[in-house]
Structure formats: structure tokens, C-alpha cells
Predict the 3D structure of the following.
Amino acid sequence: MSIRIDKINTEIRRQLMKIIQEEIDDPNIGLVTITKVDTKSDLEEAKIYFSLLDQKKYEKVKKVLNQMKSFIKVILAKRIRLKKTPELVFQLDKSIKYSLDIYQKIEELKDEENKNK
């Protein structure tokens, strides 16, 4: 990945966090964290990975973000000067949940080992 795309990804992530916190007034959103942005080199598309504290709200949050996609894109285009503002594709970042599951399993194994001593 090029340095230019890395900078674009960083700036899109930073601006999206601000937009979601400051511009979107929807109670279904709650605490959303943009964990990663992966923009194609031709700027056609940017995959936006997000995480939630409450994984059960994933469908609601994704629906709201997709409904607000055009609004978010317009604000993003005003804040970031690019030849073309990429289409935004929102996806749940499953790596955090995966990490938590691994941590829980390790803790369970430790507890089990301590009980067997």
C-alpha cells in the first residue's frame, strides 16, 4: 500500500470519527469506533471497519450508517480535498470480538488449571 493511501486512510478514519460523534444524532448509534479504513488505490471504494461495545446492536448500527452514507460522504468530501470521494462500505471489525473470545478462553483454561491443582 502506498504512503498516499495510508495518509488518506488515516484522515478518512479521523474525519469519520468526528462526523459520527458530532453530526449524526441517532440513539441507535451509541458508541461506535472506526477501527480501520481500507481505501482502494483508485479511490472508488473505502471499506470502513467499525466496532461496538454492544455487539447485539450491529445490525441496527450498520443500517443507520448505510442510511446516512450519502450524508456522511458529503460532509467527508467537504473536509477532505480529494479528486474523488470514495464510496463508503461499512463493515463490523470482527478482530476485536475474536481477541476477546481468545482472552476469555485463556482465562477459562487458567481457572480450570487452578481448580485442578
Remarks:
- The CA atoms of residues 111 and 117 lie 10 Å apart.
- The chain has one domain: 3-116.
- Strands lie at 32-39, 45-52, 87-92.
- DSSP finds four helices and three strands in the chain.
